Amino acid sequence: MTASNNTPTLKNFVQTLTIIHIALIGGTLAFSTFLYLSSKNQGVTVPQQESILLYVLPTLAAIAIFLGNFIFRQKVEKARNLPSIQKKCSAYLPASIIRYALLEGAALLNIAGYTLEGYPIYITITGTLILYMLWLRPTREKVSKDLMLKNP
């Protein structure tokens, strides 16, 4: 395949990945906003007692970040060795979705923790995870760099 044939394919792939990325972030933002606005716990709550969730949910968020990056790197490493750009992109898509889904799950668990207990640390973690997901926005340059494509 020539570079001119690869470019539209990569462009279409990145558009598809961007739509998935926006949908996951949009769903997380919508659900988080809904839970926050419907929560009785708006404002700052001083912990009355130690909650196990104060340890579990931040730990899950950190695990989601590191595990998502680890799985993504492992799958992308394998994708680099595939023969065609289509096969590389086909392997890159689930790697990205797994990474985004782990972050989304951790964000949703933290906003649910806020709804249950009202501690602002959960909102902070949710916001941080959403910002990180935004930072991971797929671009042609990022995909080309990750897959080591010669002509992006």
Tell me how many strands there are: 0
Mean pLDDT: 89
The rounded distance between the terminal residues' Cα atoms is 13 Å
Cα shape: elongated
Beta percentage is under 5%
Structural class: mainly alpha
Low-confidence stretches: 1-6
The figure for the number of domains is: 1
Largest sheet: none
Could you explain the architecture of this structure?
By secondary structure, the chain is an all-alpha fold. It has one domain. It is 80% helix and 0% strand. The protein is elongated, with a radius of gyration of 19 Å. The two termini are 13 Å apart. Residues 1-6 have low confidence and may be disordered.
Core attributes:
mainly alpha, 0% strand, 80% helix, 152 residues, disordered N terminus, 5 helices
Summarize the structure.
Helix content is 80%, strand content 0%. With 152 residues, the protein is mainly α.
Give the arrangement of secondary structure elements.
Layout: H1 3-38, H2 53-80, H3 85-117, H4 120-135, H5 140-147
Helix pairs in contact: 1-3, 1-4, 2-3, 2-4, 3-4
